[in-house]
Structures are given as structure tokens and as C-alpha cells.
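Appendix C reproduces, verbatim, an entry submitted by the partner laboratory led by Prof. M.T., so that reviewers can inspect both the input and the predicted structure.
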Amino acid sequence: MSKKELKVCWLSAGVSSFIAGYLKRDSIDLYIYIDIENQHPDSMRFIKDCEKILGKEIQILKSPYRNKENVIRQFRYINGPSGAKCTEILKKRVRKEWEMEHREYQITYVWGFDMDERRRAERICEAMPEFKHEFPLIEKNLTKQDAHAITARLHVKRPVTYDMGFQNNNCIGCVKGGMWYWNQIRKYFPEVFQTMAELEREIGHSCINGVFLDELDPERGRKEDEISFDCGIFCHLFFLENQEGQKDEPTKEE
């Protein structure tokens, strides 16, 4: 007996996943957003605005760990070769549990990869062959900039973190950020910077390779030198690609 079909779009509170979901709105059965306490409060406003445009309720899921600080303290781990522990616990585990509860369905996932992320789209298909996958932005040759423009034309205000100069609407104080990123956090969210600096010392590991936040020079880092990182499955695939590229190189400290 064939499985029932279910098409799902996981929203990240970023413009690319929203536009992907918008382009496929007539065929999507379910929109899901994983809420984390570390997201900027404006993220939920954005999700509710998206809900109005999409015309469907967005299901909100949440890990019992609630935030990255709880995860780091529980597992005594920030990030490393296998990725960030907070991504695994707060997002990946939540998604896997949802998939187990819906294993009677043949699931198609709609992803927000843009035309410059074709390789990542290929890696999604390779890493998750048990599911079908659709990439609306790639199908229509749309860039991330196009997604921002379409969001504006739909009269949806993008999350405020973009206007602060951040490349993605991730958790405030993402452990995968570089020097420029963390100096921006120091500028806009000093209490988040201080909390993570103290947590690094408590755990004995730093977010940034080679420097603790309380030692970070406020002038260090350049935006153009830092990778545009997304959280969730996007981040997981980045680490897979990073490890693949280092197979023949000496091991580097993360």
C-alpha cells in the first residue's frame, strides 16, 4: 500500500524559506517553524506576517531545552567538527522527532536554497534520500537578493536583524559566527555578548577558533571575510562540506 503524500515547508524566520513557501503555497500541506528562545523577538512577528500572506497556519515546534545556553551547559560542548550542539538538539532533534511521528507519509520538503546554493541543494538530496525535495528559488533562478525584493513587494517587513547588517536571521549570538559577527553582537546585543563570554569560560571552550570573546579586539573581523551561515539542516550540510574539503589536509582545531 502506497503512503499518503505530505508536502512540508520548514520556515526559518528568514526571507528565503518564506519565499520558497510562498511560491509553492498552493501545493504545500504544512508549514512548520521551530521556535528557539534565542531568536530575536521580531522573528515571531515575521512568522505571523508570513502566516497571513501564505493563508495557512504555521505550526510552531519547540525543544524542551528551549535555548542554546541550556544545551551548552548540559552537554558541555559549543561547536566542533561535527557542528554545533545547539543546532543538533534545538533543531535537528525536533525535526527528527516530527518525522518519526509522521513516518506513515511520503514527505516532500520545500527548501529555501537560492540559485547560488545549488551544491547545497544537491547535498540535501544525497543526505536525505528517503524524502522528496523541491527548491523553488533554484527552479526560478532566484537569488537571496531576489527573495528580499519579493518579500518587500508582498508588503512583509523583513526581520530587523537584516537591517542591522546580519546576513541571516539566526539566533542572536549564533555560536558559528566569526569575529565580525560577534563584534556586531557586542554592539547591538551587549548582554548576549557578555552572557556567551561568561559561558565560554565556564565551559572552557570558545565560539571562535583561537580567541575567547572576552579577549576579542572590538576592531577585529570583516564582514566580507565571513561565511553566510544558516542554522538547521543548512548548517549541518555546511559542516559535512567542510569536513569533505579537509580530508587530505592536516586536522585543524575547530
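The beta strands are 4-11, 30-34, 58-61, 79-80, 83-84, 105-110, 132-134. Additional entries are available on request from the coordinating office.
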